[in-house]
Amino acid sequence: MGSKSDQAKGLANQAAGKLKQVVGRITGSKETQAKGATQEVKGKAQQAMGKAKTAVKDTANKVADKANKKL
User: Fold this and answer.
1) With CB atoms 3.0 to 4.6 Å apart as the test, which of 10, 12, 22, 67 could cross-link to 47 if both were Cys?
2) Does residue 2 come out as left (phi exceeding 0), alpha (psi in the -120 to 50 range) or beta?
3) What pLDDT is recorded for position 11?
């Protein structure tokens, strides 16, 4: 999965998790609240993974550019 895809899916999971938590509070369902919290954390992790992939890719490109200039 690409970095932008990870970030987009993470954002979607985060939003869905927050919504589930609200629904859980409204309905009084602790289970739904917990599932929402879990999904929100999953979304945050996905976004972090996407950002990390982007950072690694950018760093690799910079290193490759410097190596090519020396050749």
Assistant:
1) 10
2) beta
3) 95
Query: CB 20: neighbour CB atoms within 10 A?
Result: 21
Rg over alpha carbons for the chain, rounded to the nearest Å, is 18
Q: Which helix (H) or strand (E) holds 32?
A: helix 30-70
d(CA 65, CA 10): 31
Domains of the chain, by residue range, sit at: 3-70
What size, in residues, is the chain? 71
Please, are residues 45 and 71 in contact by the beta-carbon 8 Å criterion?
A: no
| 3-state secondary structure (DSSP) of residue 22 | helix
The pLDDT tens digits of the residues spanning 10-34 come to 999 999 999 999 999 999 999 999 9
